[in-house]
């Protein structure tokens, strides 16, 4: 294992605990970057594409010579990439061949409540399941069985009536999201539209999704996670250490440790997703002689920005997406460009490497103007709501994380916004909390005393809320009535009850 000391603090500015690996790890940049396969529909009709995904246990090859058991969509990690066209409906039949219940959520999807993956709308294993001893001591597991329960398989319907954007799908099972995503239940879902297709941005093989997350490994190659198969809170001693979130010492990109990608001397579009449970990153690019290479950001969580933004580094909280163009065209074959994490140290300061292999013709470019974003006018807001994210008490036995002082209760609705209204939601935090809203994206109005940066000025669905900070966003829900979520996307916080529900009316 790479020596980082015992479970110490990582230099992320977070207090989350670092879990060191016990397996021997590969040298950085010796593994090729894998690209998740694109899923093909089983059939299509005039309005809809139909997919089938099987959730199963499988062995992944992540560390050399070792097998890592995963929970995988189609048995792979990351899961297969779905690619859709805006406005074209898709139905994804998920079959659960895992030993545990699951819930599928399309993060960033404008999805009806019945398919949004409410945390107690369980898809039970096809082979059967009964909540066993593992639930005996959970804080609020009693609510488990009161949702909309399906067994074996379930059809999730996505209208995808939304702009082109980089979405992702992942598990959302109440109290168990963190361990189930950690073990592999996450994949990309890209939505394209005509506006984006008409732009001269890099396309095809030069449009590459990068799912970045940290993991720790056991001697035998298994993922190392505190109390993997039990509930975190039910294990004495785990509370205190991992309440802040779990950090691993291995950085995976598309499931490979510190990989390398061979690139042409051309522009590339990378859709960066921070799929980590708790880790924040600050990504930067450098050549061998340590010249900094900029990212040109063209999009965020909710699709294209109005104008591109040149950034020397990108701070990414869990679940945030950054759609960037990197220009390798000026580099000679043989040049290496390394992507680092300025918030990490030692192994967690490295992410991946690009190696320029050949000169090519490239007529892609980044136009000045990318899109038009309708502004949600805060003066037209009909409601302002406060959401306070802080440590708190879940019940007599357990500390956890709360919103407005309350732990998550799936039967309690904490707000009833009216469809079509503009509202201002004001978030305050004790520590770092990446705040995510389901159903519709929002616009950041203020961060502390400042207006949002250009990078943060597009549509977002997750915002990096920093210690003691207040962030105000404008949001407007449309189309779908029902129960949706608002929560912290630090997945350990989420499982320790930092979620709230709202019902659109
Ligand atoms: Cu990415 Cu409610 O989740
Ligand atoms: Cu949090």
Automatic annotation (TrEMBL):
Transmembrane segments: none annotated. The keyword Metal-binding applies. It catalyses: 4 Cu(+) + O2 + 4 H(+) = 4 Cu(2+) + 2 H2O. The keyword Cytoplasm does not apply. Residues 62-119, 151-195, 395-504 form the Plastocyanin-like domain. GO terms for molecular function: copper ion binding; oxidoreductase activity. Its EC number is 1.16.3.4. It holds the Pfam family Cu-oxidase_2. InterPro entries: Cu-oxidase-like_N (IPR011707), Cu-oxidase_C (IPR011706), Cu-oxidase_fam (IPR045087), Cu_oxidase_Cu_BS (IPR002355), Cupredoxin (IPR008972), TAT_signal (IPR006311), TAT_signal_bac_arc (IPR019546). It is an enzyme of class 1 (oxidoreductase). It comes from the Bacteria. Keywords: Metal-binding, Oxidoreductase. Belongs to the multicopper oxidase family. Monomer. This is Multicopper oxidase CueO.
């Amino acid at each position: 294992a790479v020596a980082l000391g015992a479970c110490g603090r990582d230099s992320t500015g977070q207090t989350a605990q670092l879990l060191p690996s016990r397996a021997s790890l590969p040298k950085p940049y010796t593994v090729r970057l894998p690209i998740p396969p694109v899923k093909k529909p089983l059939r299509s009709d005039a309005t809809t594409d139909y997919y089938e995904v099987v959730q199963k246990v499988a062995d992944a090859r992540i560390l050399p010579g070792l097998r890592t058991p995963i929970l995988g969509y189609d048995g792979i990690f990351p899961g297969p990439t779905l690619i859709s066209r805006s406005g074209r409906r898709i139905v994804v039949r998920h079959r659960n061949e895992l030993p545990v219940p699951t819930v599928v959520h399309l993060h960033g999807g404008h999805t009806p409540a019945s398919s949004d993956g409410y945390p107690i709308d369980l898809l039970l294993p096809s082979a059967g399941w009964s909540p066993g001893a593992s639930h005996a001591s959970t804080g609020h597991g009693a609510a488990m069985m009161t949702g909309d329960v399906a067994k074996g398989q379930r059809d999730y319907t996505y209208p995808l009536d939304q702009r082109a954007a980089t979405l992702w799908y992942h598990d959302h099972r109440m109290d168990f999201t963190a361990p189930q995503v950690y073990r592999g239940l996450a994949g990309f879902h890209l939505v394209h539209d005509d506006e984006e297709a008409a732009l001269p941005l890099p396309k095809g093989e030069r449009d590459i999704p990068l799912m970045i997350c940290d993991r720790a490994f056991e001697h035998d190659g298994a993922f190392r996670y505190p109390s993997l198969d039990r509930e975190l809170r039910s294990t004495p001693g785990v509370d205190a250490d991992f309440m802040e979130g779990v950090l691993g010492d291995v950085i995976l990109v598309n499931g490979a440790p510190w990989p390398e990608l061979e690139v042409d001397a051309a522009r590339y579009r990378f859709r960066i997703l921070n799929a980590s449970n708790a880790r924040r990153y600050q990504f930067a690019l450098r050549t061998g002689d340590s010249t900094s290479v900029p990212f040109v950001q063209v999009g965020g969580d909710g699709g294209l920005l109005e104008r591109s933004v040149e950034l020397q580094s990108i701070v990414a909280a869990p679940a945030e997406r950054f759609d960037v163009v990197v220009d390798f065209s000026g580099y000679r074959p043989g040049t290496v460009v390394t992507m680092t994490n300025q918030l990490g140290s030692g192994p967690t300061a490295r992410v991946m490497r690009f190696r320029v292999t050949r000169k090519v013709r490239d007529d892609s470019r980044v136009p000045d103007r990318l899109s038009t974003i309708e502004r949600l006018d805060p003066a037209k807001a009909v409601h302002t709501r406060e959401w306070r994210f802080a440590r708190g008490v879940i019940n007599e036995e357990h500390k956890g994380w709360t919103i407005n002082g309350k732990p998550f209760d799936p039967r309690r609705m904490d707000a009833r916004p009216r469809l079509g209204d503009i509202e201002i939601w004001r978030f305050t935090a004790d520590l770092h909390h990446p705040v995510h809203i389901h159903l519709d994206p929002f616009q950041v109005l203020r961060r502390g005393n400042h207006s949002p940066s250009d990078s943060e000025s597009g549509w977002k669905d997750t915002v990096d809320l920093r210690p003691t900070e207040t962030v105000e966003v404008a949001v407007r829900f449309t189309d779908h009535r029902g129960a949706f979520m608002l929560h912290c996307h630090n997945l350990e916080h989420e499982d320790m009850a930092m979620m709230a529900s709202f019902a659109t009316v």
